[in-house]
Amino acid sequence: MSALLEVSALSKRFSGLVAVNEVSFSIAPGEITGILGPNGAGKTTLFNLLTGFLPIDGGEVRFDGHNLAGLAPHRIVNRGLARTFQLCRPFSGMSAFENVMVGCLAPRVRHREAPETRAREILAAVGLAHRAETKVDVLPYGDLRRLEIARALATRPRLLLLDEPFAGLGSSEIEPLSALIRALHRSEGLTILLIEHRLREFMQLVSRVIAMDFGRIIAVATPEDIVRHPLVIEAYIGRAEDDTTGDALGTA
Amino acid sequence: MRSRPWIFVPLVLAALAALPVIVKSEYLLGILSVCFIYGIWAASWDFMSGLTGRENFGHALFIGAGAYTSAFLNARFALNPWWGLPAGAAMAVLLALVIGFPTLRLRGPYFALAMLAAATIMQRLTLIFWQYSGGEEGIPGLDPLLNSKIGIYYLCLAALVLTTAALLLLARSHGGLLLRGIRGDEAACQAAGIDVTFYKIAALVVSAACAGMGGVLYAHYQEAVTPDVFSVALSISIIIMVYVGGIGTIYGPAVGAILLALLPELLRGLGQYRLWAYSVVLIFILFFAPGGLVAPLWRRAVGLAR
Q1: What is the pTM of this model?
Q2: What is the CATH classification number for the domain harbouring B75?
Q3: Complex prediction ipTM
Q4: Cα–Cα distance between A241 and A152 in angstroms, integer?
Q5: What fold, for A5-80+157-248?
Q6: Between B213 and B264, whose confidence is greater?
């Protein structure tokens, strides 16, 4: 099976600081891959490079065999690579339905099916059907998180990048959202790459983890193995003396 | 009865259509004709800037482009003034593309400032190239579009109603939804696969075409054109009209513009205190109705939320 996303030697510098340093990895269709790393490791910058929101300084991103270098963000989305933002970015003053409609009007999907029908379907799929006509300005944060995913789904992505989908949610809200992501993965065959800090939920969701620190990939392993990886432990809590660090990471 | 206020729309239009039969004052009809033209300018400003949130500080650029283009063709080449409508709109669209392409792909204040600068530069150019543009005096002696004041009144009314209806339809279409999305969050719109630069430029082109045609109507109503059509004062007063009407609603600014353009005439009895009173009224409106006056009242009347 050939890779859906292939990243090779990808780099980004911000005036001296190397935010993403020669990062290479690939993602197979149907996978849920997680990116792990402390704050400032370059995870969100990596997402911005993959989705065209930041220009690439070096290296290459190939999606479905095509080089994405220099493409505007909306063109990348229309090739089937969508993203969500770490902070919810709803269109204020508009209803939940209208928010999803914007994604349904992307050229990639606009002519395939009626945007209104599709928007209703997606709202139902993420459990927001009852909020369709509610203005996003009064939606609770948990619903905004779902809406953020709904808008990205509206563009019928083949690969969905989720930037901290659980950020700002209470534990009671995380489990249903996590179940939603799993359900989308199963039913739509969606390939997912996600960044998350909530380790317990993260580890249950992903089948493979890419660990980053200081802009570099320091380890790639299964969720079980990654928390025992010496470089990962070091990145999170400094050099460890004994084996109890697995507990500190919340998964052992 | 939720729909009762809708009755007022055809009633008001019928009243405006019947007015020349009742009121024989050509002076009043002339004032109203100009009010309708202001309505076109405010609605067209709102279509671009109210929907996308990208403020335009130089709408007069499009107005002046339309007015001077038509004046040139009419005065120098003796062209029928009706040709000025497409020609003036085309010139405004051309300028919209020249300014929109470089500035609307950027975020930040570049578009607003470029519009302000371009309108000011055009005003200066009319003075510098006075041999062609007539300088301060402009180009007098233009042919009117119609020979009767009543005809012009109906022409301006029809132009306003058609423009407002067309812009409203566009604003409520899928494209209009995307323009409001751009106002909400441009990056999120891109992340939803929307080419935001294309939609912003398209909105500006539509806005410019309407404003340019309004400029042509104005030039031939006055039967003259002066550099004032490029003035900052005109641009700013249009923005004030939009805010009083209710930004982002199209119909609100159209009605707000008529009311505000009429206000100085209504205050004429106050003599020298007229401008003073006008300013006080404006400050009160903006202070007590920051969301505008016309659109919020209308929404309350028809029972829409907020």
Answers
A1: 0.91
A2: 1.10.3470.10
A3: 0.88
A4: 44
A5: Rossmann fold (3.40.50)
A6: B213
